[in-house]
Every structure is written in structure tokens, then in C-alpha cells.
Amino acid sequence: MTASLFISDLHLADERPESTETLLRFLRDTAPKAERLFILGDLFEYWIGDETLAAPMPAQVAGALDRLGKGGTAVFFMHGNRDFLIGPRFAKAAGVQLLPDPYTVTLYGTPTLLMHGDTLCTDDVGYQEFRKVVRNPEWQAEFLAKPVAERIELARTVRAESEQAKKVKSMTIMDVSLPAVETALREHAYPRLIHGHTHRPAVHEHVVDGHRCERIVLADWYGAGSCLECTRAGCRSVALT
Ligand code: LP5
Ligand code: MN
After folding, report:
1. Which of 69, 153, 234, 241 lies most in the core, judged by the most C-beta atoms within 10 Å?
2. pTM above 0.85, yes or no
3. Domain locations in the chain?
4. What is the DSSP letter of 175?
């Protein structure tokens, strides 16, 4: 049956080669059977600019994505909060189409809203302020003009600051807020929302303006890999080895 696949929050890093290996197997053996693959952000642990393509692991991943695309599976990429600086050079090398967040797609007759998920965490005021700064095109141009070594240093500093900040935030603050979910569904698409970011895989039911909606939260790849497979029959999570 024709299928579309969804993955997010892989957080690929040289320190965790297992995830990269799982992804390369998935792109070689599983994904070619699907008509579309959607990567909903945080493919990489962090991305400081497309110069990163010179490193072996990102180059290998880009090459594998490109092969998948050339084999007939359309590949789409939406930025996450870790890799929002993925740009046109990566997109070209990987043969992926960059999607805006949010993005609506009709999957086998069902309108489906796709998001990374970070914009739904509206109670996380500290993060939303940080996001506003780093998503500003002028800030990004200034950051990308800095030497690569300096950018890596800054990214490491921000990662450490972020880990510190998260220690004192409640789980509720770091989850999506219900009003944000309802607004997104109302403004963009009933009856389905697929997102990642929170690393809390689940299928939630929401009733919005009398519409019964489902919100599917994708799993991260810290433990093991997984993808969501959607067909005309619905969506199901598939464990990857
Ligand atoms: O990523 P995750 O899941 O661990 O946490 C997120 C939020 N944190 C982030 C930050 C990213 O982890 C780091 C992204 C690196 C990108 C590299 C390129 C850009 C480099 C930028 C250099 C300036 O997104 C976290 C959320 C959590 O999700 C749950 O939703 O809570 O948000 C935070 O923790 C943000 C804090 O609240 C505020 C952070 C302030 C950082 C201040 C930096 C000071 C140093 C500046 C140096 C110039
Ligand atoms: Mn994220």
C-alpha cells in the first residue's frame, strides 16, 4: 500500500553512531518503498551552517537522502530548534525540499498539519524569547558570517545554557500547550496534526470546534529509531533496528 513516512528528533551526532547507522539502514531498506519521507526537524544534534557538510557524518547522511530521492521517494525537511540553520546548500546536496513550519499536506484524503512542535510550547516563555532572536534573518546572517570555530563554540555554550535552563522547568511548561494545539488545528487543518520536539510519543485526541482530531507525537531516536507510517488505512508507529 502507498505510504508516507515521518521521522524527527534523531539528534544525529558523532558521539551516537548507532542512530546514524539506523538511519542509513532505514534510508536504504525501508524508505524506498514509500512515496514520501518527511523529516520534521532535529535531524542533527545541532547545525551551525551548511559548512558542516564538509564533515563525514553529515555528508554521508546527505548522500543517502539524495540517493533515496533519486530512487523515487520525495524527501521533505522541516527545521527543528536544533537545525534551523540548515540551508539551501544542504537541501541541494541531500535532494530535499525545505518545508515551512507549519505545513499542511493531504495524506490519502486526510488533511494533516505538520509541525516541528516547538512553537506549540507557548508556556515556555524563555525558549520562545530565545527562538524569536535566533529565527530573525538578520541575526542569522550575522551568525553565519562568523568563523565556523566560533559558531561551534557558541552553539556549545547555548546547548549548555539550555540544559541548565531545562533543569528548573517543569514537564508541563516544556510540553505543548492545549490552546496552541487547538489554535493550530483551527487555523490550518482538521483533523490531524503530526509533530515531534517533545520526545513524548503518543496519539492524543482533541475535539476542536466539534471536530474530532488526532495529534500524533513522534518519538526521538535516543533509545532506538522509529518512524510513523501513514497510509489510506491510517498511521502507525514502526520500530527501526
Ligand atoms: O533542544 P532541547 O530539546 O534540549 O531544548 C529545547 C530548548 N532549547 C533550545 C536550544 C538548543 O538546544 C540549542 C540549539 C543550538 C543551535 C545551534 C545553532 C545556533 C547557535 C546559536 C548561538 C547563539 O532550543 C529549550 C526548551 C526545550 O527545547 C523544551 O521545549 O525548554 O529552551 C531553552 O532551554 C532556552 C532557555 O529557556 C533559554 C536559553 C538561553 C540561552 C542563552 C545563551 C547565552 C549564551 C549566548 C552566547 C551568544
Ligand atoms: Mn526539537
Report:
1. 69
2. yes
3. 4-239
4. S
- For 4-239, which CATH superfamily applies? Metallo-dependent phosphatases (3.60.21.10)
Separation between Cα atoms, residue 175 and residue 186, nearest integer Å: 19
What backbone phi and psi angles, to 5 degrees, belong to 177? -100, 140
Summarised one tens digit per residue, pLDDT across range 127-149 is: 999 999 999 999 999 999 999 99
Q: Which ligand is nearest to the CA of 166?
A: 1
pLDDT tens, residue by residue, 37-95:
999 999 999 999 999 999 999 999 999 999 999 999 999 999 999 999 999 999 999 99
> Long-range contacts: 21-29, Cβ < 8 Å, 24+?
22/221, 22/224, 22/225, 22/240, 22/241, 23/61, 23/64, 23/221, 23/225, 24/60, 24/61, 24/64, 25/240, 25/241, 26/225, 26/227, 26/240, 27/64, 27/65, 27/67, 27/68, 28/64, 28/67
Residues with CB under 6 A from ligand 1: 46, 48, 81-82, 85, 118, 121, 124, 126-127, 130, 134, 154-155, 157-159, 161-162, 165-166, 169, 174
Tell me the helix, strand and coil percentages in the chain, rounded to 5.
Answer: 40, 25, 35
